[in-house]
Design goal:
- By secondary structure, this protein is an alpha/beta fold.
- It has two domains: 255 residues, D-Maltodextrin-Binding Protein, domain 2, CATH 3.40.190; 93 residues, 3-Layer(aba) Sandwich (D-Maltodextrin-Binding Protein, domain 2).
- The protein is 42% helix and 14% strand.
- The strands form two sheets. It has a six-stranded mixed sheet with strand order 1-3-2-4-11-5. The protein has a five-stranded mixed sheet with strand order 8-7-9-6-10, sandwiched between helices.
- Helix 8 links the parallel strand 7 and strand 8.
- It is globular, with a radius of gyration of 20 Å.
- 45% of the residues are buried.
- The N terminus is likely disordered.
Length: 381
């Protein structure tokens, strides 16, 4: 059965720089209390694990342990990894974190996860702080964010909110894309009164008028459709000026270095299942079925329809780490460093491990399934 771990409140309430410091402390503690498992098992075959532990940096509506929006979501909802490993006697454990990326990073630092999905900023924070992971897939490519205001607000543009109270969940991909959008328009976070709240607390604050604006994701569209809020900024349509590629967050799937070293065969099987699911998610014949499936998260199928209006499924569900993904990831890592969200630079090249994806594409005969894009987001030649 999926599990829902409680939020880790200290990291939830601290800015991303503090999260990085806490991660460093946890990593130092681990190194002083035990050697790396790979070192302890040197010269011996690693025994098959009894469980594979996945982390998900979100919860569904009402705290339910289901989220939608990606091929990882579909894999979880349909129990596809459970089917894959049933005959091996390996259980698949799903851990959903209300505390989002910061809480996932703490779990990784504590050795509590084997795989996780993460938005780009928390992935950078973990890597910068010394978490030993490999980036093996992209999921939720071209992630976008929205800025919403109360229905009665006079604000019509981002500029109208200068000096006002804006909420964002710090340490998440949403914060980084917000910071990059502000910089593109000549602002910084200091031009606004930025408040750190998680997704559960932020919406009531917006609806009650206690804050002036909220940066968040898909659920804001649903509340706008219901007449509760008004979206005044959409990163899909309001960035990408002057011929530059749009500012978008890039979702990642990470595996711990320890697990990948000890169980490369199991990592390959996980990736094969995920890539096969990405293929199914990308099929336009499955569009309505997919949105209905994701509706189990508590987000209405109509909201997914709106988010994907005019967008090919294959564009957002591709697992490829193509030129656009790499350029966006590198730009995000540099921005995170410039904005002091991370303390040390993150080298993308030394982090990415393409071997599992490349083998999956070959074994499943999907090498030409998805279009690869260049750094500017145009189809690669």
């Amino acid at each position: 059965m999926p599990t829902h771990l409680p939020p880790l409140r200290f990291l939830l309430l601290q800015p991303s720089t503090m999260a990085a410091l806490v991660l460093l402390a946890l990593l130092a503690l681990r190194s002083t209390t035990a050697g790396e498992p790979s070192e302890r098992l040197a010269g011996t075959a690693a025994p098959k694990p009894s469980v594979i532990r996945f982390g998900v940096p979100a919860v569904g509506i009402g705290g339910r342990p289901i989220v939608g929006g990606s091929f990882l979501s579909t894999t979880h909802i349909q129990g596809l990894l459970e089917q894959e490993f049933k005959s091996d006697g390996i259980r698949v454990e799903w851990n959903f974190f209300k505390g989002a990326g910061p809480a996932v990073n703490e779990a990784l630092a504590g050795g509590l996860l084997d795989f996780t999905s993460l938005g780009d900023l928390p992935a950078f924070i973990g890597r910068s702080a010394g978490l030993k992971t490999r980036l093996i897939l992209t999921t939720g490519s071209r992630g976008n964010v929205y800025l919403a205001v109360p229905v009665g607000s006079p604000a019509r543009t981002l500029e109208d909110l200068k000096g006002k109270r804006l909420v964002v969940h710090k340490g998440t991909a949403t914060q980084l894309i917000m910071s990059r959008i502000l910089a593109q328009r000549g602002f910084s976070e200091s031009d606004f009164r930025i408040i750190n709240l998680d997704s559960v607390a932020s919406l009531p604050a917006l609806l009650s008028g206690d804050i002036d604006g909220l940066w968040s994701g898909l659920t804001l569209l649903e509340h706008e459709d219901a007449g509760r809020v008004r979206v005044i900024f959409d990163s899909r349509t309001d960035t990408g000026r002057d011929g530059k590629a749009e500012i978008a967050s890039q979702g990642t799937i990470l595996v711990t270095e320890n697990f990948a070293t000890r169980h490369p065969d199991l990592v390959q099987r996980v990736v094969n299942v995920l890539v096969k699911t990405a293929d199914w998610n990308s099929d336009e014949a499955n569009r309505e079925t997919l949105f209905t499936l994701w509706e189990r998260s508590g987000v209405a199928a109509a909201t997914y329809r709106r988010s994907y209006r005019g967008v090919p499924l294959a564009l957002r569900q591709s697992p490829l780490m193509d030129g656009f993904f790499l350029a966006s990831l590198a730009a995000g890592a540099q921005a995170a460093l410039d904005l002091k969200h991370i303390r040390a630079p993150v080298a993308i090249d030394g982090w990415i491990d393409r071997s599992f994806l490349d083998r999956a594409l070959a074994e499943l005969k999907l090498e030409k399934r998805w279009t690869a894009y260049d750094a500017q987001g145009a189809p690669a030649p």
